[in-house]
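Dock 4'-deoxy-4'-aminopyridoxal-5'-phosphate; give full complex structure.
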Amino acid sequence: MTDVVLMGDKFVPAAEATISVRTMAFNSGWSVFEGIRAYWNEEEEQLFVFRLPEHLQRLHNSARILRMELPADIDEMVERCRSLLERNNLREDSYLRPIAYKGLPTKLGVNLLDAVDEFVAYCFPQGRYLPTERGLSVGVSSWVRIQDNAAPPRAKIGGTYVNPALAKTDSLLQGFDEALMLTSEGNVAEGSTSNLFLVVNGELVTPPSTEDILVGITRGTIMEIAEEEFGLKVRERVVDRSELYSVDEAFLCGTGAEVAAIGSVDGRRIGDGNIGPITRQLQEFYLDMVRGKNPKYRHWCTPVHTSAAGTSDRELSSTVAK
Ligand code: PMP
């Protein structure tokens, strides 16, 4: 699996990448993280990270909410993450997980400022997360999405993932593929770790960023390509639960989920239960683009390997070269 882990500004062997039991991120969930995908392009023998600077910018924004600092600016964090993937010599679809967290406490209590800021990133090979070749069965969860003035969902805060974990686990145990979560007001928010789009009268509809969602980078990408490439109108608006049952198409999207069609909601079939035509077009376009195959969107794909053969340079425990 992962050979090398980035801890602070050092690359260390995975076996040495350990943290104290007193770490506040472990004790109380005080961490912010990202989930980032890198896609292998066979023809070019290159690994491309999709929208890496945007993910690290969101990590920075999440960190600010928890009064935390990243160890370096975004450009430098991009370079460290690229280097981490290269040092692990990953030559297949992979996943990158940077975490900024509160480490050892300087005092007992819940003052976020009484703990030391730390950073770690690791990566591993990762294929599909949700099935994308068929319509998913989703169920509206009885677990309600956390709200902004309690624990902000717009930040990817470690501790707040108890909320989608309860929803997802219960929905799997009930026989669904995935959960949909409602806001505390009863409007539709998002999937457990993905954003929701509906196709209504030939237009895309998605809940706005004020509906207690994580404002997904894939969501933003889909909004952009839907308008730019397919001339689709995208409406950000509040969605009622009962609307879900009569839409033409519905899909989830996220770094992990990619673009995954919804075949049924609460046992009610959407369309013919398979992947709808608009969803399929967006899915195909997306999966091609993330692999660096679309020149127009190549700027969203950060190449990892600086030499075609990857790197054999594994200077462990060395300070990151600027
Ligand atoms: N919502 C939640 C709660 C998530 O955890 C994720 C995954 N990061 C998403 C939506 C999708 O976000 P993105 O497209 O940035 O991966």
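Observed: The chain is about 20% helix and 30% strand.
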